[in-house]
């Protein structure tokens, strides 16, 4: 059973990892932050007041940090996100090596499962966007069974063309979701949220990668023991050797962290 601890419940503090700011927050704090954001939005909508801006939540790993170092638009997206949580174990390791340890790893899929459980209790309605045709529908059915009381506001697959985006946005707006889960793969999902956040009329949007595939049963997550010791990336690589090129970001990240540590010591 996962031990509870006092929540680091505000994303006000930042930890610099290779020039990218990651929020100093734990999983309980992230849940609280998203919950408060949803409630503020719902209250404004009920009162007919101006709606708060969408809160973009990014669950970051070593790969997206390296992308942000190389691609200015990704760096800008992370800098403007409402919350950047440390999904990858590499970020926790890197933060410790650099002398400003993050509280814990926050796996995005587990964070969203906690939010779906909370949604079932509070009457919040998520929207599933992404994955192959049929996957979001299957994930909806599974999660509504898993969390009695959960009502998914709508679903749409991720295989849409740019010309179809207006229809997708309209469907999301009409559904009025409280939580938008976007499964388009990183960094496409982050770019998509950032590009259309002013047209989504939702409180919170989160890129969830392959979560819909796992929830639907079409893909499997690593065994819990591998997740617990930070080897989920290895499981993915063994199951999908085609990811090898992407995984090159891991040793590059490790090297960059060691170099940064050495530079700071010399300075």
Summarize the structure.
This protein is of the alpha/beta class and 267 residues long. It has helices spanning 27-47, 62-70, 72-80, 89-97, 108-122, 135-146, 165-175, 188-196, 211-216, 224-228, 232-239, 244-247, 249-266; strands at residues 14-17, 20-23, 55-60, 83-86, 126-130, 154-156, 179-183, 204-207.
| Total domain count | 1
Count of strand segments? 8
Largest sheet: spatial strand order: 4-3-8-7-5-6
Measured between the Cα atoms of the first and last residue, the distance is 43 Å
Instruction: List the quaternary state of the chains.
Output: single chain
User: What share of residues are in beta strands?
Assistant: 5-15%
Q: Nearest-angstrom radius of gyration?
A: 18 Å
The largest pleated sheet is described as: 6 strands, parallel
Q: Can you count the helices?
A: 13
What is the topology?
Layout: E1 14-17, E2 20-23, H1 27-47, E3 55-60, H2 62-70, H3 72-80, E4 83-86, H4 89-97, H5 108-122, E5 126-130, H6 135-146, E6 154-156, H7 165-175, E7 179-183, H8 188-196, E8 204-207, H9 211-216, H10 224-228, H11 232-239, H12 244-247, H13 249-266
Parallel strand pairs: 3-4, 3-8, 5-6, 5-7, 7-8
Antiparallel strand pairs: 1-2
Helix pairs in contact: 1-5, 2-3, 2-13
